[in-house]
Amino acid sequence: MLQIRNIAALFSICLISISMSTVAVSAREMPGSFADLAERLMPAVVNVSTTQTVDQPSRMDNVPPAFEDFFEDFMKKFPRENNKPRKSSSLGSGFVIDPDGVIITNNHVIEGADEIVVTFPDGKKFDAKLVGRDAKTDLAVLKIESKKKLPFVKLGTSSKSRVGDWVIAIGNPFGLGGSLSVGVISAINRDINSGPYDSFIQTDAAINRGNSGGPLFNMDGEVIGVNSAIISPTGGSVGIGFSIPSDIVETVAGQLQKFGETRRGWLGVRIQVVTDELAETLGLDETHGALISEVSPGGPALKAGIKAGDVIVKFNGKKIDEMRDLPRIVAETEIDRKVPVEVVRRGKRRTVQVVTGRLKEAMVSEDDGSPGNAPKNPAVSSVAGISLEDLGEVARKELGLSDDVKGAIVSKVDAESLAYESGIRRGNVITEVAQSPVASAKEAKRAIEKAVKSGDKSVLLLLKSAQGLRFVALKLKD
């Protein structure tokens, strides 16, 4: 079971009081017993045990440098006979989704395994073959051969699940087979920074080590999630567990069974978060969507006419509430399929048609805004707490910029200025101001001063750094 030991320095507890009006709601009654469901579902939940070969640590490990020669001579005289690779084993859970022996589990349960053995609640054991695995979603598909049809469970639709719904987790915590726990859905679409497509279901149903790969059921006995991670300072359940939604499981498992690998859609853009300041400068009526900071040459987005500075607010009919929604939705889209993409460009909405490509490597990321290297050109201009210089050959070489990149390089930022607060750093190259290209420090200064004189609260800058392109809303008024 993946564990998250430190989030925001663990937890702080606050007591707050709020006034509330009484709202009449209807709720599904809690069943008097879960025994009927348990009896029906447990036969399809299995124990997944793995064995792999690992190297023994050397005797020289952790030996102080002053004693290395002594111990090396000692080891030559008295060699360690058992310094050979050893067998390591691990336990997890899984569940059968097809009577012919198709099993779902976590990738981290079987990763690096030499042997995989599946054990059913009745004690029957089967050697399992790895059909395919996907590290980005932490999912794996196994296959076992059986002369008889096997008990199985069905995947449900996780998107229909709501916060407060009852759920059941079944698995093998700490190797204790066939354990059941009950709870509710605490939250949906959780991002725990475990991968690029995080959209976890959070539950307070007890999940512990060994539950990894086990199913999370709804009250209809359908699998709506695969239990994968917990937040735990102690290693045991504290009521915060995370499950991979079945909608993601269905797509990934289907591709792994069909191709032995995942085949994700690709748009060909670099994106960043839309902040409140950026939303205002981009003409958005609300803070949502994914801001395009760079378009890949020859990619689907470029061919469709999508440009840097566009904000994607809908992809194939699905709203993009947060930046991180876009990579997941694009990845789930069928390759070579034409889909409508709604963008906001200079405050106006338009829809373009994009034919998705195939993702072969990570192409989407967010600039972290690190400072970069300092330029070594004569200072030219200062404005809004920023010192600007023309982009000369020395700076181009240090930053690895080609001759076709035009702009002004930031040589200094006042630490007390609004520019620093906005995220502008020494070494950034300003290539656009208010979505218009600038070729020199003088042009950049003139464009920023124009925004100041117009009384604008902020002005949109396109910055290039070692991490790529990103937009920043330069605050002009506090």
Walkthrough of the structure:
Among the domains are: 154-259, Thrombin, subunit H (Beta Barrel); 265-358, PDZ domain (Pdz3 Domain, Roll), CATH 2.30.42; 381-475, Pdz3 Domain. 16% of the residues lie in helices and 34% in strands. The chain is built from 10 helices and 29 strands. The protein has helices at 35-41, 68-77, 107-110, 246-259, 276-282, 300-304, 325-331, 393-399, 418-421, 441-453, and strands at 2-4, 45-54, 86-98, 102-105, 115-119, 125-127, 129-134, 139-143, 166-171, 179-190, 200-203, 215-217, 223-231, 241-245, 265-266, 269-273, 290-295, 311-315, 318-319, 338-345, 348-355, 357-358, 381-383, 386-390, 408-413, 429-433, 436-437, 458-465, 468-475. A hairpin with a 5-residue loop joins strand 5 (115-119) and strand 6. The chain is elongated. The chain starts with a strand and ends with a strand.
Alpha plus pi helix count: 10
- Find the count of extended strands (DSSP E, 2+ residues): 29
* CATH homologous superfamily annotation of one domain: Trypsin-like serine proteases
Name of the level-1 CATH class of one domain: Mainly Beta
CATH architecture tag of one domain:
Beta Barrel
**Range of helix content:** 10-25%
Through-space gap between termini: 46 Å
Report the average pLDDT across residues: 82
Q: Radius of gyration, rounded?
A: 28 Å
Q: What structural class do you assign from the helix and strand content?
A: alpha+beta
Tell me the CATH topology of one domain. Thrombin, subunit H
Percent of residues in β-strands: 25-35%
Which spans of ≥5 residues are poorly predicted at pLDDT below 50? 7-25, 361-379
Large-scale geometry: elongated
The main pleated sheet reads as:
7 strands, antiparallel
Strand order of the largest sheet: 6-5-2-3-4-8-7
